[in-house]
User: Fold these one by one.
Assistant:
Number 1:
Amino acid sequence: MADNAQTQTKTAINEDKIWTKDFALICMANFFIFLGFQMTLPTIPLFVQELGGSDQLIGLITGIFTFSALLFRPYAGHALESRGRQFVYMIGLGIFVLSVASYSIITSIGFLIVMRMVQGVGWGFSTTATGTIATDLIPPKRRGEGMGYFGLSGNLALAFGPALGLALVDIISFPQLFLICGSLGFVSFLLSTRIRYKKIEASQHKAATIKFDIFEKSAIKPAILLFFITVTFGGIASFLPLYATQKGIEGIGIYFLFYALFLMVSRSFAGRLYDAKGHIAVFLPGTLMIVTAMLLLVWLPNSLVLYIAAAFYGLGFGSVQPALQAWAINEAAANRKGMANATFFASFDLGVGVGAMTFGLIAASFGYSFIYLVSAFSVITSMVIYIGLLFKNGRTA
C-alpha cells in the first residue's frame, strides 16, 4: 500500500512537472529564433532609411510582414492538427532562416517588401507552432505559469536582441548583420530536430481535415482584447528609435533592455496569479501600466523618462499577454489548441500591422509623439471592452 501511494505521488509530481527536457528544448529554440528576429526589429527601419525609404514606407514594410504572418496563421493552425507539430514548426523555421539571410543581398525597397512577406509566412508558421508545442508540454493545471516561463525565452531574446542589433550595425554592415540573424534562426532549426512532439491521433486528424475555418471561436474574446493592446507595439517597434533620435535622446538600446527585464519580472508572478485567480486579477492592472507607458512616451523629455516608460510597458505587457494566451487556449477543445494559438497570434499580428501602417501616416502628418497618444487610447478601448465583458458575463468574462 505504501509503495503504491509513493508511486502515485511520483506520477502526480511528474504529470505536474513543467521543466522537462522537451520543454527546455522548445524554450531554447524559441530564444534563438526570437533573438534573430529582435535584432532586426530596430534595425529594419534604419535599413529602409539607408535604401531611401520614408516613414510611410517604414510603416508599410513593418505592416506587410505582420499581415503576411496573419494570412497564413489559419493554415498553420490546421496543419498543426492534420500534419503534426514538427512539420509546421520546421517548415516555418526554414522559411524564416532563408528570408532573413536574403536581406544580406537586398539593394531595393521592392525586393525588401517581397522578402518581408516571405519572412511573415515563416514567422506565422513557426510562432503558431511553437506556442502550440509549448502548450502540449505544459500540465493544464499550471498552464498560466508554464506559458509565463515559455514567454521568458522570448523575453530574454528581447533583452539582448534590439540592443545587440543596434550595437552591431554601428560596427558591421547590414548584410553581415542579417546573415548573423539568419544563423541564429538556423540554431533554432537544429534544436527543433531534438524535440519529441505530440502525435496527432487519427480522430483528431479527421476532425482537422473535414472542416477548414480561419479562427477558433472560443479564442475570440482574448484575441480582440489583445488586438487593441498590440497596436502599441507597432508604434514602438517601427518608430521609437527614430522618435528618440529626433528628440536627441540616447539609450534606445537600453530602453529595450529595461522593457525586457521588467517583462521577465512580471512573468515571474503574473502566470501564477492568473492560475490562482484568473485574468481578472492581471488584465486591468496590466493595461493601466501600458497606458501609463504610452503617456510617458508622449511627454518624453529625457532618457530617464524613456527608461521608466520601458519599465511600465514591460510590467504591463508581461502581465497581460500570457494571461490572454492561457485564456484563449484553455477555452478551446483538445483538437482546437492549434487553431486557438493561430487565432491569438493572428490578433497579435493584426494589431502590430495596423499600428505600424497607421502610425506611419500619423508620423508624417502629426509627428512621432502623436503615435503614443493614439496608442494610449487604443489600450483604453481594450479596457472598456473587458469591463463590458465582465458585466455581461457576471464578472467572469
Number 2:
Amino acid sequence: MSLLRRVRWTLAAVLLALLLWAALWPLRYPSRERAVDFPRGAAILKGRAIAPDRPPQLPAEIRLTLGVRDVLLLRNRDLSAHVFGQVLVLPGREVRLPFGEAGDYAFACDAAPDNTVTVRVLPHPDPGWQRLRWRLHALKEAVRELPVHGPEA
C-alpha cells in the first residue's frame, strides 16, 4: 500500500472519530451564561441614536440552549440605563435572565435593531445528528464573534 493511500485512510479515520465525538459526547460549558453587553455609546435619546452613524449595539437574535447556556447575562457598560423587556439594566450593573423552556421570546430593547431582540431558546440537543449540528453551529458562531484586528502599521 502506498504512503499516500495510508495518509488518506488515516485522515478519513481521524475525521470519522471527530464526527463521532461531536455527535455523541455530552455538552459541557464552564458557565451556563451567555453574556451580552451594552457597550459605551449604546444609549438612545428620545428615539434617536446619540451617534446616528453607529450601527445598533445588540444583535436582533440571541440563541440559548437549555441545559448548556440557558441564562442570559446582560452587562451594561454604558453610562446610561437600558431597558430589556421589563428589566431596567442600570449603568455598570449585570442582570441574569434564566430560561426554563424552549421557545422564542421577544423583548423590547432600546439598543437593538428595530428596538426588538428575539431570544431563541433551543431544546437540549439529543446525541447524534442533532448534537453534531448544534456543535457545528456553535463553532460557526464562535468564529464569527472573534475580534477582528487589522495589521499594525
Number 3:
Amino acid sequence: MTFERPAAPGASGQNAGLSTATQIDLDAWEAASLRRQGLSLWAAGALVEATECLQGAERLAPANPRIMSDLGSLLYATGRPAEAVHYLSKSLKIDPSHPQTWLVLANAAHTFGDMDIAEQAFLAALDIAPNAPGALMGLGLLHFELRRFESAERLLSIVVSDQHAAGPAIYACLGDARRMLGQFSQAREAFQKAAAGFPLEAAIQRKYARVGLIDAAIEEPVEAALQVYEKAAGCYAEDVETVLRDALQALCGFGHAAGAIRVAKALLDLAPNDPVVRYHLDALQGTAHRRAPNAYLTACFDKFAPNFETQLIDVLGYSVPSTCENLLSETGRSFDKILDLGCGTGLAAPFLARLGEELTGVDISPGMLEKARERGLYHRLLESEAGAFLAAGEERFDLVTALDVLVYFGDLSDLFEQTARRLTPGGLFALSVETGEGADYRLRPCGRFTHAPDYVAATAARHFDTLARVATTIRLEANAPVAGEVVVLRRL
C-alpha cells in the first residue's frame, strides 16, 4: 500500500522554495495526518496498512514521542517485540512521563526475553502511577517468573484487593506464590477463587485440592486432611500416594515436623518397603544415621534423574560446579586423572574435562549414570556407592571432586581417609558441604546432613592442607538459601 503526501491547507503546486520553518510545519502536519490515519486503520483491523502509515509518520517527525509510542505499540501488537522495544525506548527517552508507554515497553521487552528492561519499565510505570493495575500485575507476574516469590505475592495481593482488576488466573498465580512461600492457608484461599473461576481446569482444581490437603495436614489427622482433599478435588482427584508424597515434601521443607511425621507414617502404610519415606521418617524422628542408606540414594536419584538438572539449577538455584571451577582454575594446575565422585548427571563434567586428560565418573544411581553418559565427556562411568568405590580400589587420581555428595554422609572420617589414599601425593580434593552449627553433623528432615565448619576442617586436617575455603549458597530449600562451603584440599 502506498500513500501520497496529503495537500496542506492553502497549499498549491510544488513545495520547492518553501522556507525551512514552513517545511517543518508541513512535515509535522503531514505526520499528524498519517498518524490519525494509521490509528483509524489499526482500529479497523488493517494492521499492515496501519503500520505503513505510522512508519511514514515517524519518518516525517522522528522526534515526536507520541508517534513513536503508537508505532511501537502497534509493532508489539503485531508480534514484532524487538522493533517495538526500539521505538518505545526512543519515545520514552524524549518524554518519559507516559506510564502506558512504559507498560507496553515492559510487555514487549518481556516477550522479547529481556527481563531487565521489562522490570525497569514496570517500575518506571509505577513511579508515575503507583496504583496502575496493569503495572502491578505485570511486575508481580514477572517476579513470579523470576522466582522472587515474596515480591510477587506482595504485588499480586495488591492487585486482588481491587476486585475489578483480578481474574481467576491472577488468583492462581497468587496461590502458587503463597504455596512457594509456605503460606498454605493463604494459598488455599487464593486457589479457591481460582478454582471457582476455572471449574473445568483440572490443573487448577488439583492445585487447590493439594494445598488444602497440606494446610489441613499441619494440624489434623491424615484421614481428615484427605477428606478435605477429596472434597476439593472432586472428579479431578489423583492417586492418594501421589498427593501424600507431595504433602510430605512440602511439610518437611517448611518445618511442619508433626504433620510430616503423620503423613510419612500414612505413606508407609501404603508402601511399607519404600526406602525414601522410611529414611525421611527417621530424619524427622531423630533416628541416628552415619550416612544415607544405599537403597534411599538409588531410589531417590533414579526417580529424579530425568528432570534432575532442571530442578536443581532452575528451581533450586544450584551453582556449586561454577564455584568449584573458579577455585580449581586459580590453582593453575591440570590433572592427568580426575575422579568425579557422585557424578550424578555430570554437571561438573564440562569444566573437569577442560582440566584433565582422563575423567572417571562414579555414582550409585543407574538413572543418573545414563544421563551422564549422554554428555560423552567421561572416559569411564562406574556404578558404585562413593565410599565403597574408594575403599575397594588402588588406582590413584590427581583430582577428586565430591560436589553435593558429603551431604549424604554424616561422619566424614572414613571418606576423607579413603579419598586421601586414592590421591597422588599433592593431589587435590574439591568438595562441598552444607553448613550448620552445634553438633559435628546433623541429619535434616530433607534427608541431607549439615556439617559444622570446624568439624570439616579438623577432620580434613588429618590428611590434607586447605588451599581454598569459600562460603556460598549451596541451593534453595523451601525457597530459602542453604548456607554451605566449597573447599579445595591438598593431600599431605
Number 4:
Amino acid sequence: MKIAHLSDLHLGKRLKEYSLIEDQKYILRQIIDILKQEKVTTVLLAGDIYDTGNPSSEAVALLSMFLLELKNLDIHVMMIAGNHDNGTRLSYGAEIFADSNIHITGKYTGKLACTTIEDEYGPIHFFSLPYIRPIYVNQYLDETEAVEGYTAAVKHALQ
C-alpha cells in the first residue's frame, strides 16, 4: 500500500481580496498527477481542509472535484477535520461517501473512528482523530473524569 499524506489545504483561502482558488485548483491537479505517477492507493487528508468553518461554494466545489478524481482513481481517502474546519459540515454525507472509499471524520464522538483497508499483505487499520478540544472530550465523561488542556484531551482520546 502506498500512502500519501496531505494536510492544511486551506481551500478557499483569500489573501486580502485575492482568491487563491485557481492556484489551489492548479496545485490539486499537480497532486493528482503525482498520485497517479507514484501509484498511491491511499490518501490521508489530515485537517484544515478548508480555510474557514463556513467555506465558500467555490471551495466546496474544489474539494468535491478533488475527491471525485480520487474516487475515480480508486484511491482510498481518510479525511479528518482540523481546527479551521467545521467538523459537522465537513462530514456532511460521510455515510454515503464511505461507500466510495472516502472516509470522513469531522467530529470526535467519544471514540476513535477506525477504517480497515486490506491489501495483499493483509488488513491495515487507520484510526482517525479529528481536531479536538477538552470540551469535545468532556461531553463524553462525567465531571470527575473531566480533562483539562489539549494534551490531556488528546491523551484521553487515544486511550
